[in-house]
Amino acid sequence: MLTILSQNFSLVNEWINELRNVQVQHDRMRFRRNMERIGEIAAFEISKGLEVRDVEIQTPLDTIKSREIAVQPVITTILRAGVPLFEGILNYLDRADCGFVAAYRKHDANDYFSIKQDYLTCPSIEGRPLIVADPMLATGASLIEAIKDLLTNGNPTQLHIVAAIASRQGVETVQNAYPDAHIWVGAIDENLTSKGYITPGLGDAGDLSYGEKLQR
Ligand SMILES: O=c1cc[nH]c(=O)[nH]1
């Protein structure tokens, strides 16, 4: 299933405009905060489909029957670009456990790249919803690798993938690999450059959040 959070105009459109806009996007605090805000909205939407259980709440005056999340999710991301989006999800689903994957693009002499993954730390995801934050779902290659590794930590009840901007090709690739996943995207762009960047996109989300990296 695919949900496009900017389908009907909302604040999400404004935040994505700011993420993309070269006049605005270099304000790093605003860039990170806009990513976080998209994560917060995604978490709110995801919460509507989480399993709930009945609870009784004691107020100072009486008790009331209500509901709460039955099984806390595990929120994960791919370092480093995913951190602000991840933080946004965690701001709202604040009792969740968290996991991290490290992956980077290793460039060759022609500036083509392969995905190198070298770190995974994550609690058990057995019987729990798994949320994966990947701000720029470009080819889907690093995301598919990351999810494959995360799934060695158990079988989740639900798989949610959250991206700020996705390419249509990336969405289709991930849907083919994980047909049961619910993909939540801020916006979908039609194209990818030959170097695997989403276009029009926004550029490099990690660099815009944390500073231009040295190529390895
Ligand atoms: O366009 C893209 C693709 C991957 N990662 C980014 O930061 N931007």
TrEMBL record:
Keywords (A to Z) from UniProt: Glycosyltransferase, Transferase
EC number: 2.4.2.9
Stated name of the protein: Uracil phosphoribosyltransferase
Root EC class: transferase
Ranges for domain Phosphoribosyltransferase: 11-211
GO molecular function: uracil phosphoribosyltransferase activity
NCBIfam families in UniProt: PRK00129.1 (NF001097)
InterPro entries in UniProt: PRTase-like (IPR029057), PRTase_dom (IPR000836), PyrR_bifunctional (IPR050137)
Gene3D superfamilies xref list: 3.40.50.2020
UniProt xrefs under Pfam families: UPRTase (PF14681)
